[in-house]
């Protein structure tokens, strides 16, 4: 094939002159004039060769080479195929299972904390008796409040009770007097009625006695009602006094259960407020569990009831201890806003004699092992997302094809979209395009080395 003619015209470049120097150039030393060159044969004069910069020569050579390659190949920019195809690592899909294991880092907390609230608002804290982490017994004082107002209420209730007692005494005396007058009026009316038929007394006197009896009866009933009202006031005063006694006793908050003070939220001078939450949190003895905050995406691989191995250091020991527990609760709702969820693992109630229950707040690690997931394990480098997951499958003729897949919750196992025996691109999927021909390369098998104990 004849090569295409190529020529170029390079402009004549004259080096620019620099600015005139302000200093006069020193005169050159005089030298003898050279002897005249030998005379040449007469003929037409030869033009001088123009000066070409080296960079232009390099550019011209590159353009010539590109034109030569284009002329030799009818398809411009053709991709090499066959032996020149891109070498890509692949692997053969085989069914398998993957252990669903999640590592958690958290701390030991109370399983069901007991909250201690102040029963009255607006009272100032005078003294705090316990600290966080301290063991307490039932009824032990925790904090004393400024109960001067409560003591004033009790004094008022006591005075009201005394007044009610006096009123009851007066009403009882009046009722007894009215009862006595009624009985006397009844006896006299009975006697007048007995002799009224014989004419010993007049009808007018008989009517007067009956009127006196009716008045005595009404007075008796009125005093009885007054006594009942006074007794009711006395009962109310006694109830108010009992309530005031309880309110005064509430000035000292006491532990309702035996355990450990897991949290203290009160200081001397604090004013009690129901909106501020509990003043103390108590943990019952032996009531422990493991708590961890994890990323919301990792909660999908956990289930309530999964077995958990918790490694921690018991109180007073330096040797780590591993105990078996179970996932008790998974608070996924907390992960909506903060993208973090809480996992609570129930620890055993009984601990070895030489390993007492761990202290609250002890740092621990947990390994959650769920049921194995069956599918096709694939390396992470083979997965692509757009945003759905897919892989490149090598088909006939070593051409790659894009195929959608379904992943497990942890994204490590393909659950659908592949079949046993499929050849999948392991890496460099981002550099390929559908339908491209590749040269599959399988990674070399890793030799297994058996470690033997040194002989003694």
Automatic annotation (TrEMBL):
Keyword Coiled coil on entry: yes
Gene Ontology MF: a single term: efflux transmembrane transporter activity
Region called Disordered, residue ranges: 11-50
Gene3D superfamilies with a match to the protein in the record: 2.40.30.170, 2.40.420.20, 2.40.50.100, Helix hairpin bin (1.10.287.470)
Coiled coil: 147-174, 213-247
Pro residues bias spans: 13-41
Sorted UniProt keywords: Coiled coil
Entries under InterPro entries matching the protein: RND_pump_MFP (IPR006143)
Annotated Gene Ontology cellular component terms: efflux pump complex
This protein's record includes keyword Phosphoprotein: no
Signal peptide annotation: none
NCBIfam families: RND_mfp
Classification via PANTHER family: HLYD FAMILY OF SECRETION PROTEINS, MULTIDRUG RESISTANCE PROTEIN MDTA
Similarity comment: family membership: Belongs to the membrane fusion protein (MFP) (TC 8.A.1) family.
Name of this protein: Uncharacterized protein
Species of the source: Roseateles aquatilis
């Amino acid at each position: 094939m004849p090569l295409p003619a190529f020529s170029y015209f390079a402009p004549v470049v004259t080096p620019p002159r620099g600015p005139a120097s302000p200093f006069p150039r020193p005169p050159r030393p005089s030298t003898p004039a050279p002897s005249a060159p030998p005379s040449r044969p007469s003929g037409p004069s030869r033009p001088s060769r123009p000066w070409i910069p080296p960079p232009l020569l390099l550019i011209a050579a590159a353009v010539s080479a590109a034109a030569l390659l284009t002329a030799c190949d009818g398809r411009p920019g053709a991709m090499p195929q066959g032996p020149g195809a891109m070498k890509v690592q692949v692997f053969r899909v085989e069914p398998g299972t993957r252990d669903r294991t999640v590592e958690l880092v958290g701390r030991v907390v109370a399983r069901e904390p007991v909250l201690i609230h102040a029963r009255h608002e607006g009272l100032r804290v005078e003294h705090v008796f316990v600290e966080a982490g301290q063991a307490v017994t039932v009824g032990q004082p925790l904090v004393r409040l400024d109960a001067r107002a409560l003591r004033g209420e009790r004094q008022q209730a006591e005075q009201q009770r005394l007044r009610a007692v006096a009123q009851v005494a007066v009403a009882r005396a009046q009722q007894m007097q009215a009862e006595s007058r009624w009985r006397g009026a009844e006896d006299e009316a009975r006697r007048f009625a007995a002799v009224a038929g014989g004419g010993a007394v007049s009808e007018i006197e008989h009517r007067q006695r009956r009127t006196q009896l009716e008045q005595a009866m009404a007075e008796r009933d009125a005093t009885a009602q007054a006594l009942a009202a006074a007794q009711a006031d006395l009962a109310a005063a006694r109830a108010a006094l009992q309530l005031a006694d309880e309110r005064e006793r509430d000035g000292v908050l006491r532990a309702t259960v035996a355990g450990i003070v897991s949290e203290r939220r009160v200081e001397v001078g604090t004013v009690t407020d129901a909106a501020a939450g509990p003043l103390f949190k108590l943990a019952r003895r032996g009531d422990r569990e493991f708590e961890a905050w994890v990323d919301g995406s990792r909660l999908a691989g956990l289930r309530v009831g999964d077995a958990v191995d918790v490694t921690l250091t018991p109180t007073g020991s330096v040797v780590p201890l591993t105990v078996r527990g179970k996932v008790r609760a998974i608070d996924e709702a907390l992960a909506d806003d903060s993208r973090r969820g809480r996992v609570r693992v129930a620890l055993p109630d009984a601990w070895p004699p030489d390993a007492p229950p761990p202290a609250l707040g002890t740092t621990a690690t947990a390994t959650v092992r769920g049921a194995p997931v069956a599918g096709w394990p694939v390396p992470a480098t083979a997965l692509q997302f757009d945003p759905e997951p897919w892989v490149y499958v090598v088909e006939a003729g070593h051409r790659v094809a894009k195929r959608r897949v379904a992943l497990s919750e942890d994204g490590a196992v393909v659950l659908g979209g592949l079949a046993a025996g499929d050849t999948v691109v392991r890496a460099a999927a981002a550099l390929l395009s559908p339908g491209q021909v590749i040269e599959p390369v399988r990674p070399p098998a890793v030799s297994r080395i058996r470690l033997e104990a040194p002989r003694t």
